[in-house]
Amino acid sequence: MKKIDLEIKEKTITINRVTKVVKGRRIMSFVSLVVVGDGNGSIGIGKGKSKEVPLAIQKATEKARNRMYKITLKNNTIYHEIIGKHCSSLIFMFPIKEGRGIIAGGVIKAILNVMGIVDVMAKSKGSNNPFNVVRATINGLLSMNTLEIVAAKRGKIIKDII
Fold this sequence. Notes:
Layout (H helix, E strand, L loop, with lengths): L2 H5 L1 E14 L2 E13 L4 E9 L2 H14 L1 E3 L11 E5 L2 E7 L6 E2 L2 H10 L4 E7 L3 H13 L4 H8 L3 H4 L1
Parallel strand pairs: 7-8
Antiparallel strand pairs: 1-2, 2-3, 3-4, 5-6, 6-8
């Protein structure tokens, strides 16, 4: 095992039983959605499908570890208000004062815990499908800009922006 693997936290978001109807019978399998993170701003999502639950979770975890994104954080919170969208799911996230904790729904709370974000408030509107909510949350977090990025885009220094 690598040293990185020991530090990664994983959280199973959902497990669904799906059925395929074929001639003469039904074939059942399971789909799992897993989120992994290092508690320092890295996040990965994965979806796995298998005829058994543990195998589906293992496949999803491997995919999530291979597709990790690095998101910069500001003192264990986000820099500014974020709106994330995927299909009909809409996510609003706001930074709050230190010590308030995560004020969010189940799926969003699991994602933020694994990432290492401590103080944030989030609201989900539209579709509450876990797959869409996870993707909308990730899209919103990836769209977040830091002061350095904004200063570089405008061709100014950070002191001028503040």
